[in-house]
UniProtKB/TrEMBL annotation:
It comes from the Bacteria. The lineage of its organism: Bacteria, Pseudomonadati, Pseudomonadota, Alphaproteobacteria, Hyphomicrobiales. The keyword Transmembrane helix applies. InterPro entries: DUF8058. This is DUF8058 domain-containing protein. The chain crosses the membrane at residues 20-37, 49-70, 82-101, 107-125. Coiled coil: none annotated. Keywords: Membrane, Transmembrane, Transmembrane helix. Residues 16-125 form the DUF8058 domain. The keyword Transmembrane helix applies.
Length: 129
């Protein structure tokens, strides 16, 4: 029993969703790497345990996005289900980011994360077509 579908069975929306998931996953990893290398995580000193759990949650979300995106591009049988889980995790990350940036008065970042949420839902719906 094969875990892949024929290339013709993979629609353009599934491929787009896979690319989106991989791009967002890599951006999350790069973003945290940048913040940690530049020592730009003030909560890491005031709330270290909570912050490390937060970082671990976001890196886990990124890893699952990357794996699900790869699976979507490779047309594996498990990819659509994992993609929905990854999208749900991403939406939780986005909700937290909107709350954090909103409480700090950073309106452009709130708008950026709201756009990311809309795109996440758009691709999740399209991946199911």
């Amino acid at each position: 029993m094969s875990t892949t579908q024929p290339a013709s069975a993979v629609g353009p929306y599934a491929r787009g969703a896979g690319r989106f998931a991989m791009i967002v996953g890599f951006i999350i990893v790069l973003w945290w790497a940048w913040l940690l290398v530049t020592d730009d995580v003030p909560d890491l000193y005031t709330r270290p345990v909570a912050m490390w759990f937060h970082i671990a949650g976001e890196i886990t979300t990124a890893a699952i996005l990357i794996v699900a995106g790869y699976g979507m591009l490779a047309a594996t049988a498990w990819a659509r289900k994992l993609y929905l889980v990854a999208t749900g995790m991403l939406l939780l990350v986005v909700i937290h980011a909107v709350a954090w940036y909103g409480s700090h008065g950073d309106f452009p970042m709130v708008v950026a994360f709201c756009i990311l949420a809309v795109l996440s839902v758009f691709f999740a719906l399209r991946a199911e077509e």
